[in-house]
């Protein structure tokens, strides 16, 4: 969630907001030094790697909120969420890798900050590294396990998470299955919801909402992060300096970051990320080799798949996309986004009667979510079929254009989630396409525009 706040800042900078505004916001961030006296670190790769950590801190949450959102009990001072967020060197892609909190890990030599006992290294669950050695041991443990050099550290607790969601006016999530967790109080029937801060915290914390336990929770966290980015970038807050300042100041007072992540870094990143969109982000979880790996004195853990995990982290170091390209097969062309996830309005751009209905019906038969109400163009002179799309849905547009051989892609800012097909005189057929989810590589990657409610 802190990464989302950072993204808001850099997008504001990209929109032309002055250095003084960002500098003032930067001064509100609490600082930590997770890299102090660190030696023998992994070699630097390409791009930027941010360790995003969510802790269970709840000191500033009211008693009423604790009761309402089931936040009672003492915090364990451990990490509920650990993600590596990789920003590509060209600043055109973000890759988010979730590290399960119950992952089996071995700490490097350290001194336990609670007991004062010196350790030469011992087995733990990865989320316990924070309790034993704070941000520094967390970074060292992650670097030792992944061989990925961490460039920046960002930490958010329950309070700052709830503030972030509330000041943005809530975040929209959807579920096809009922989600009910008696531990957190989460209770959602199938449908679409706009969650406030407390409800959103229930959503991302729930481990007992289905049989997938913590792995299912991580996927919900990834979905929520994508939805939060979409909310932050589409709500208009980035284009209003005064509102942005008020919103961000309400959030930054309860987050922590390393000392090197300052104003200049935010501005440089912002200028480079002008074209960033939901489809530019990809999400996955480190490959698991063994569930229920029992360790004496610790209990059940998750053991990473050493071969596949090594390939995943090598891709991060080499600044490579984690998702593979689409491949044809099964009598249909594989595309990145399933037709069932793409909304389409058909417009007849010619004087040929019935062409709009024919195109609409053919797209619907292939699985696209057409309006079933094609319209006619005001000036019906289109010679070529056009796919008009909002740049934020560029991957959906490419998938739609694949189904319309010879069509032209045309970006239209502000068009929204519904794509428009302007049927031209060259229209001949709709090609059958299907999602390439099964071919998104061994890492099970999904992209930001695939996990939203649209």
Automatic annotation (TrEMBL):
The keyword rRNA processing does not apply. Belongs to the LytR/CpsA/Psr (LCP) family. Residues 1-23 form the signal peptide. Residues 341-427 form the LytR/CpsA/Psr regulator C-terminal domain. The keyword Signal applies. InterPro entries: LytR/CpsA/Psr_C, LytR/CpsA/Psr_CW_biosynth, LytR_CpsA_psr. It comes from Streptomyces asoensis. Residues 79-233 form the Cell envelope-related transcriptional attenuator domain. Keywords: Signal. This is LytR family transcriptional regulator.
């Amino acid at each position: 969630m802190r990464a989302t706040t950072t993204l808001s800042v850099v997008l504001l900078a990209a929109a032309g907001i002055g250095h003084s505004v960002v500098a003032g916001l930067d001064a509100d961030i609490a600082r930590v030094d997770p890299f102090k006296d660190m030696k023998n670190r992994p070699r630097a790769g390409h791009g930027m790697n941010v360790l995003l950590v969510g802790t269970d801190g709840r000191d500033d949450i009211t008693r009423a909120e604790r009761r309402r959102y089931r936040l009672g009990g003492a915090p364990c001072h451990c990490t509920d969420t650990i993600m590596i967020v990789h920003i590509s060197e060209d600043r055109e892609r973000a890759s988010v890798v979730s590290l399960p909190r119950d992952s089996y890990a071995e700490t490097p030599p350290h001194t336990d900050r609670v007991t004062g006992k010196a350790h030469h290294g011992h087995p733990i669950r990865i989320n316990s590294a924070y309790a034993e050695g704070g941000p520094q041991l967390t970074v060292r443990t992650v670097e030792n396990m992944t061989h990925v050099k961490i460039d920046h550290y960002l930490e958010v607790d329950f309070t700052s998470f709830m503030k972030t969601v509330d000041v943005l006016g809530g975040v929209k999530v959807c579920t096809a299955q009922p989600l009910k967790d008696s531990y957190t109080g989460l209770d959602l029937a199938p449908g679409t919801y706009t969650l406030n801060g407390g409800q959103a915290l229930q959503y991302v914390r729930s481990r007992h909402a289905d049989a997938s336990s913590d792995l299912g929770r991580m996927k919900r966290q990834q979905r929520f992060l994508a939805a939060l980015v979409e909310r932050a970038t589409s709500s208009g807050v980035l284009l209003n300096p005064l509102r942005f300042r008020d919103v961000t100041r309400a959030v930054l007072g309860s987050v922590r970051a390393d000392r090197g992540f300052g104003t200049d870094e935010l501005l440089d990143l912002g200028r480079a990320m002008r074209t960033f969109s939901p489809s530019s982000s990809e999400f996955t979880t480190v490959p698991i080799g063994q569930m229920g790996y029992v360790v004496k004195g610790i209990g059940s853990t998750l053991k990473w798949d050493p071969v596949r995990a090594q390939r995943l982290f090598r891709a991060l170091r080499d600044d490579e996309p984690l998702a593979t390209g689409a491949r044809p097969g099964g009598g249909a062309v594989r595309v990145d986004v399933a037709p069932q996830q793409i909304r389409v309005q058909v417009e007849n751009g010619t004087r040929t009667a019935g062409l709009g209905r024919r195109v609409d019906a053919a797209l619907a038969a292939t699985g696209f979510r057409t309006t079933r109400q094609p319209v006619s163009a005001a000036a019906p002179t289109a010679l070529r079929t056009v796919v008009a799309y909002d740049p934020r849905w560029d991957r959906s547009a490419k998938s739609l254009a694949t189904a319309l051989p010879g069509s032209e892609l045309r970006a239209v800012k502000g068009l929204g989630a519904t794509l428009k097909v302007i049927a031209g005189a060259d229209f001949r057929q709709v090609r059958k396409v299907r999602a390439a989810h099964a071919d998104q590589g061994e890492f099970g990657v999904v992209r930001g525009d695939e996990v939203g409610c649209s």
